[in-house]
Amino acid sequence: MRAQQYLSRPSYRRARALLTVSIAVSLSACWVPPSASVRPAGPPRVVSEGIEVDRVAHSAWVESVDQTARTVALNVHGNPVPACTVGRSVRNWGEIRKGDQVKATVREVLTVYVPPVPNRSQDARVLVVDPSYRVLTVQYPNGVTEALKVGLGARLEGIEAGDSIAIHPVEVIKLRLRRHAMPVRQAW
Fold first, then answer.
1. Residue ranges of the alpha helices (H) in the chain?
2. By the 8 A CB rule, do 176 and 161 touch?
3. Dihedral angle sign, alpha carbons of residues 114, 118, 124, 127
4. How far apart are CA 41 and CA 39, in angstroms?
5. Quick one: which of 55, 65, 51 has its CA closest to 105?
6. For 145-152, which contacts have Cβ atoms below 8 Å and span 24 or more sequence positions?
7. What is the pLDDT of residues 33-88, one digit of tens each?
8. C-alpha–C-alpha distance, residues 136 and 156, integer Å
9. pTM here?
10. Domain residues of the chain, as ranges?
């Protein structure tokens, strides 16, 4: 009797492991990541405009600085941000130089539209719209995705995955210079 118990346990464990693996594999095949390559339905049109977002770039490079005009051009993950004005709330404006790495908060206005021609150049495309949390997940042409928190007054009705987005930077709200500590030399 004991010999039969020991023989049945490994087969039970093997069957249970096989069942667990097969369930995991079948469930993973059901999930499909969002895609911005879908074509929205309907004729070319503007779906929504004037959507204000505050976009935080944790690591941006300063491309150019004009101290007198109070403008700065940034490069965020290889995407150039056109020169825009620097708000009066930025306190360390005099320290910012070309080539600096900064953490920047940029106020932008989005226009969501259905393009007249597919595969036309756009700033970004909509991946996911979550109206309950007011989050718009977008994908840039270089493949980088970002979740943008939109303001309370923004209308998200009618925005679908695949819609194109035109981004118009309005103002840099915050700039924080990212200083890197110099490596400490050890004396031997």
1. 2-28
2. no
3. positive
4. 6
5. 55
6. 146/55, 148/53, 148/55, 148/110, 149/53, 149/54, 150/51, 150/52, 150/53, 150/110, 151/51, 151/52, 151/53
7. 665 566 677 778 888 888 899 888 888 899 999 988 999 999 887 778 888 899 98
8. 9
9. 0.66
10. 45-177
